[in-house]
Design goal:
By secondary structure, the chain is mainly α. The protein is built from 9 helices and no strands.
């Protein structure tokens, strides 16, 4: 009887882990890009996610379906760690004397990205959602997990996933309504959150069937 990919990865089969990467790396990248809004950081998240997945392979349960939900939760945690490191680095750099201004060609490149303004708004809004709300929004809306898959991956009841997602959507809709009346307005409290939903999510790479 042929062993499942889950069983083989859990046992430390490197070939099976390579198949896991080939099957899900694109989905993990898209997930990371939507969370970070940065291609380079998303690539780093993918690398660190699969490194951590290899280290944590022994924690995989013997029974279950696709390992994608497990990978997406690892990516959520990796993204948070990277964000914390970036904030510490930024704080340290802010204490250094200012350097002479130099031409910034990154701005020129950014001007060519049609989704830049919308992406910034999405990132601002997500930053104001609670952690649990961001997680279920990223897993269910952006990465297409159903309630049961997200609940299993996060280790919470299905009802908790439903309620968190409902709260996140209400907050995003409230901000969308506020932004429509005053486009230049800065997001305020969590109840004034931004635009969300699958139809508004950025799609950096078109995924194939899973």
């Amino acid at each position: 009887m042929e062993l499942s990919l889950r069983t083989r990865v859990r046992a430390g089969d490197k070939d099976a882990f390579g198949l896991l990467f080939e099957e899900h790396a694109r989905a993990v990248y898209n997930h990371a890009f939507r969370l970070t809004g940065n291609w380079s950081t998303a690539e780093e998240v993918v690398s660190l996610t699969f490194l951590e997945a290899w280290r944590a392979r022994g924690t995989i349960r013997a029974e279950g379906g696709s390992l994608l939900p497990w990978l997406l939760v690892i990516a959520l945690n990796v993204t948070r760690n990277i964000s914390r490191s970036a904030r510490r680095h930024q704080a340290a750099m802010s204490r250094l004397p200012p350097r002479a201004e130099e031409p910034d060609f990154a701005d020129e490149l950014a001007d060519r990205i049609d989704d830049a303004t919308r992406l910034e708004a999405v990132q601002t809004a997500l930053g104001r959602l609670r952690r649990g709300e961001r997680d279920v929004l990223a897993l269910c809306v952006w990465s297409g997990l159903n309630y049961a898959e997200a609940a299993d991956a996060l280790g919470v009841p299905v009802g908790t996933v439903r309620s968190r997602l409902s709260r996140a959507r209400r907050k995003l809709q409230a901000f969308a309504a506020a932004a429509e009346h005053d486009p230049g307005r800065e997001p305020g409290r969590a109840s004034e959150q931004v635009t969300g939903g699958r139809e508004n999510a950025l799609r950096p790479i078109k995924e194939g069937p899973r």
